[in-house]
Amino acid sequence: MDRSAALRFSLIIPAHNEQSYLPELLDTVEAARAHYRGSSSAIEVIVADNGSNDQTAEIAHARGCRVVHEEKRVIAAVCNAGAAVAQGEILAFVDADSRIHPNTFNAIEHATSNGKVIAGATGISLERVSLGIAMTYIVMVQIPWATGMDSGVVFCRRSDFMAIDGYDEHMLFAEDLDFLWRLRRLGRSRGQKLIRVTSVKAITSMRKFDQHGEWHYFSLIIHALYGLLVSPNRVEQFTKKYWYGNRRT
């Protein structure tokens, strides 16, 4: 990748043992870079390797990605490590088990070109659907509808990322919602808004459902509510087990 050209985008991919998913994501990233109406060399791809013991870093290097290493097992810290070396004007973040739309960079470029938008996200499409997954989606989709905060490819200007000090590394989960909430608050002070660019939704894997079951999200919610009411320490223990406890191979 030619880094002598002015960089418009830095796509940051937090990754822990993602050798099974990363190649497919990078295939879609290359398609989106080729489809970008600017120069493909204006887009850098950063893989933030979070203590992987598989071929994640080697795959990223072989595909021309910039690789940074962050050992702290907190997703927010991994995103911040990638952002710390990013040189693009616009930072974009996507999970390693996703696939992005070919028009992603063009759509984000258009969304951020007039100065009225502080940040946004593309939203997601589901890799597969079952009754349990569909019911979970119906419940969870209320969040973006109510708040305008979504997932998928999350993006903002690097200057605004720095203005809010990036992701909160004290948060073990929901760091993405907190991140967008603080950006929205900053944007309101300037007359800017959050947006959802749903024409270029990312496809997300259903591996949590494969691992924990089609209906597990409802028990997760009950578990979290019980922990908050009875024993906050249990919430932290459960969070660490659910999001960080199993090393993928």
Q: Can you say what the CATH homologous superfamily is?
A: Spore Coat Polysaccharide Biosynthesis Protein SpsA, Chain A
Overall 3D form: globular
- Global structural class: alpha/beta
Mean pLDDT: 89
Largest β-sheet summary: 7 strands, mixed
In CATH, the topology is named Spore Coat Polysaccharide Biosynthesis Protein SpsA, Chain A
How is this structure best summarized?
This protein is of the alpha/beta class and 249 residues long. The chain is built from 11 helices and 10 strands.
What can you see in these coordinates?
The protein is α/β, with parallel strands linked by helices. It has one domain (9-208): Alpha-Beta Complex (Spore Coat Polysaccharide Biosynthesis Protein SpsA, Chain A). The chain contains 11 helices and 10 strands. The strands form 2 sheets. The chain has a 7-stranded mixed β-sheet, with helices on both faces. A 3-stranded mixed β-sheet has the order 5-10-7. α10 (216-230) runs antiparallel to α11 (232-244). The relative contact order is 0.16. The mean pLDDT is 89.
